[in-house]
Write a structure and sequence with these properties.
heterodimer; A: three-stranded antiparallel sheet; about 5% strand; B: mainly alpha
Amino acid sequence: MNNTTDCSAFAALIERSVKNELDPAESDLLARHLTTCTECRGDAEFLQRLTSTELLPDPSEMEMTRMRRNVVAQLGAGRKNERDVIVWLAAAAALALIFFGGILIGRNSGSPDAASQPIVQASSVQPAAAPASSHDGFARDIELVASRHQNLEDVENSPLAFSNMQVSEVGKGMVNLNFDVSRHMELTLPKGDPVVAEVLVQSLIQPENVGTKLKAISAAQDLPDAKVRSALTRTMATDENVAVRLKAQEKLVQYPNTAETEKALLDVLAHDESIQMRLVAIDYLTTHKVAPQLLRNVLAKSDAEGRNALYLRAGDYIQGDVQ
Amino acid sequence: MNDRMNQAERVHANRWISRASEGSGMPMNVRSDRELVDASIAGDTAAFDEMMKRYERVVFRVAYTFCNSREDALDITQSVFLKAFRSLESFRNESLLKTWLIRITYNESISLGRRSKIRREEPIDTVPDMLLTERPRQEEELIATEEARRIRDGLEKLNERHRLAVVLRYMHATPIAEIAEVLGCSDNMVKNILFRGVRTLKKAVVGDR
């Protein structure tokens, strides 16, 4: 068994010995320790086995070629969507130009030389109608794309992927957004704005940090948007961090009841490792009168840990049905 | 943006011209990761193709660690590169491209794992219990030896972070510092994770002998 020696120090040497990274003195020191410590000797032998065993398969060249081809094809499709947006925007801009040009011509029609004034001068009104900043035009592009996204899948396939997102509520129903999308954007918008929903959803489905996700969920409180709701549901079911899952659940249960929410909460009850989340789920499901038989089935199949607490919480609701 | 896309279209025809740097005969003009990222952002699809070739194996194998399915690992690999491309502009030199991709792979794998767990186990009333625990046999057959199977089973007993650290270190010879970057912790924490991970794994694999 172990000597009094600190084996954790030798663990580092064992680890490096597997990679042949020890100098002769270290090698000698380790060898002496291994003759007296069965635990470390076992570790060393096991590490050798671990590194010499082929555990993971390699992909074939054909599989990887196909994968790369699919990626490039999908990226091409994404670019086509971007081009479609640009064409649409260009058409809209042209219409706006004609419209404002028409107004200008109309206003000037009383002047004697109005007829001879070229339409192209209509562009002289552009500065007044132009964006206040160079970002505004791009912000409108983003708004256009965001407003077209009806569900989670639309957002996942968005040609505009945001990153480094920060969401903060600034009061009076407004939200401040900071994010990068080929350039840095900072916008303050009403909670109901489609761009706010877009950023909230992207911050939940992208690998953002926990703080960002928690703030996004907070800001989602008054937004019963379908895609936000779906993003919250997925976050509750799949996020790695329990605080994020719990926060998503707290928001979801505030929304009016739907079949999707019930189903998601049944999944939480059956599978989530957090007892707290399972308790919230059972409170919600009993309050909303989910069939007691279904609850009993789920509880019977749920993870054993904490199951007694769940039975206790569900107590009268599922017992009453039995009698 | 139009300029970028025109450029992309120009290079499109050459996208399958391999500039890969694999193997010992690396060409003199191998591009760095940063160069590949910049070129990809500028619309050079061949650069992104080269980037995929450089890292597809590690992405696939890390994904496989979590899903135990060749098909799912391929799907995850594809999804990782799509997400990576769409977020390339947010990639800065603060981390290595490799660790950035591994982090995306880890998140994607965990996400898929949770989703598929839910898919497998619903509807709760109708799926027979046997199906819930059955593992993909054809994938297991790819893992040739009994030894490998035992270790793989042991790996599943590790939590996800420990599993990732052990696989990166002992199956990909990844330096401690890079693992620390992937996991977002210190080098010492990684060493601690590896120590505990290997002990747990050893106990699972040889503990009953």
